[in-house]
Amino acid sequence: MHPTCLRGHGESMGVWSVHQVSRISMALHPRSLLQLTLFGFGLVALPPIGGLVYTAVHLQRLSTQSQEAVFRAVTATRASSALVEEVTDMERMVRQYQVVGELPLLDLYRRTQEDFSRTTLELAALPLDDVQRQRLRHLTDLANQARSHLSGTRPAPEAIPLAVRNLTELSTLSRSVLTDSKSLIEREIAVMEKTADDTKYFLYWQAVALGPAALVLAGLFVVLINHPIRQVDNALRRLGDGEFATPVAVRGPRDLRELGERLDWLRRRLLELEEEKSKFLHQVSHELKTPLTALREGTDLLAEGVVGELSPDQAEIVTILKGNAATLQRLIENLLNFSLARSEHGTLLATPVFFDALVREVTADHRPAMIAKGLTVRIALARLTLRGDAKKLRVVVDNVLSNAVKFSPEEGVIVLRLEQHGETAVLEVEDAGTGIVEEERTRVFEAFYQGRHAGGGHLKGTGIGLSIAREYVYAHGGDIDAIPPRDLCGACLRVTLPLGNGKIVS
To answer: Model-level pTM greater than 0.90?
Structure first.
């Protein structure tokens, strides 16, 4: 639809509704977002472009007038000053000639007289008023009279005083011309100010007229263009957050509808991959668990001497095998727990849990590792009972405390705090390790993400312990995050759990 057709409807642009804009869009039949955007920008740009062209003409006119005014002002100032200097020089030379009678002084006078004539012609070309022109003619007459008195090779002695009298009057009158030049400059400035005020007034009303029209058109087309883009953005956010259940539907130009179809295909594909990943983790974990059990039982039999007494070197190797087998079993259990947490999110076996006692039990389980590293544990636990899944809460506490033990330095300190804040239980586990940098405080809870050690190397582990903890905490309707430490210099993980039912499904 042509812009003139839009004006032919006689409707105010300011009261158009989104429905009418949609009708325009349907009439345009945009095949692409680019086509719709170009048309919208072209229509929106028409009023400002017209205003800019008209403004450019006015500004060019103002600029030309300003340049001419400045040129005239500079010319008037320079010529008036030169005129005063030239008249002063002529008077001085004639007076000196009157005293010493040297002919070269007359030659200098006549050359200065020629400069004076050129200066008066330059002043006469300026836009002078009648008084200023009359004064300039009087100047010229006095100069001509003085020149006539000093004509000839050697002027008569009685003509010299007459010439001096003419030049004295000429000197006084030239200073009046200098004053007149200042009034000329003031007049030029007044003209420039009036022209600038007229231009400013015009530009103001032009902005008042064109601004709202352009804003209304821009707002209408922003709504028209932004709606499908927001649909795409929301779809991408849902996919980024792992919400694959909601279908993606985009309405608008054809290219954006096709993009929405591709995003929906991507959503279905990601959903399939997520299911396949969960199945893979579950199956691989189970497949690894069977040979690992046999490996652990075999190392236990060797350590107990069932197949014969071991030498010290053999016993040391068996101890290493047992430790690594235990570590491998923990990793496999983490994988199983992660798969279970993703597949059974929000499903809990809710019972009353003495949370402080559970924290103490988990701490006792980690005592050997703490002793091996020489760690000191400071415990401040309030007596709290909450409703939740004891098994999953144990996993939460175990993974958070394991993280603190792993990152604590030799002979470091771990602080355990359990407090009640209103209707929630708050557990904080703080260590004296390298800490968590600001940009990693949210990412440490992502699956398989491992933050960097202060020295730059990666620490051992699967990177899913805190992810499992987050899944189980969310299932209880709680929250888990990394906060700045209170007492130590390392990391501090805070778990917040509701004391009541919350989101628990029993």
So the answer is: no
